């Protein structure tokens, strides 16, 4: 039976053998394309491009629910195979799920009518949750069901955003987009709590693992979900001083976790310092949100982009670089130039947060170019891994 299953898997084209392959590849390509289009629109270089709802509506949906969701899907569809010991989604079912994601991106880019756009956008996250939930249910693996719940909450946020688009309500769009962004931050926290201690121990050959702190992890997740709910409800769209204790408390929880995982040796290993720096943007974004809540920061967009570029973008690039090596049978040693890609993405986040208040177009242009260059470098050295077989001859 095992031999037959292995032969069947090896008969599938490599690109469709596991979820990380098409979704990581397309997600990285879309990272370059989406930011390039947005920067061009801001500079007035695309006067004829008018996506449904306008370029701002496209941008606020496609970065969290197009780019980030692709990477999340690829990671979870691959990780669930390791969690359950059962084969992950592959072959034609994977082609169909990926095709839905791709058609939704093309529909908005090419100006499809709103009904078709909604029909293509709305089903993806529920279908992803269904695939994950079925695999976990078969082995009764309750520990990972919170991740399915977060995916479903993200689907609700996307529906809220798209409903706002359909009725022309900008407030609903903002509520859905920002709640979805903070939920992605929650996923970074959950997944980071699982992989960062393990990656750090393995990468530095530490004799002892980091002690688990399950209560801290649970409290952090619950507080993160509460914050996302405040944005979804609309209560957090205006500065509220009563939000500051929650936000500062959550920032403190993230700092405690990051400090617990810290080892000075990470600065010798790009695959480690990139993850730790990305996670550090999460409490920084929360501090910015707290300052805005108290009236000390006038431009809350700086906090949102600290989360989106520094934390989410940084964590995604770092995870892409490591997970892609491991799941294609390669040593966990990226090309030296990938360290420069990590650095460029971090510098881009700094430019977006620190330069924009004083030189808006310079900050936006520089951050966009650095983001695009970072993901382009990743594609230059990693793209072929996704459509070729594992180097160790194993399936997957």
UniProtKB/TrEMBL annotation:
The chain crosses the membrane at residues 20-43, 63-80, 92-110, 116-133, 145-165, 177-196, 216-236, 242-259, 271-296, 302-325, 337-355, 361-382. It comes from Pseudomonas leptonychotis. It comes from the Bacteria. InterPro entries: NnrS. Keywords: Membrane, Transmembrane, Transmembrane helix. This is NnrS family protein. Pfam families: NnrS.
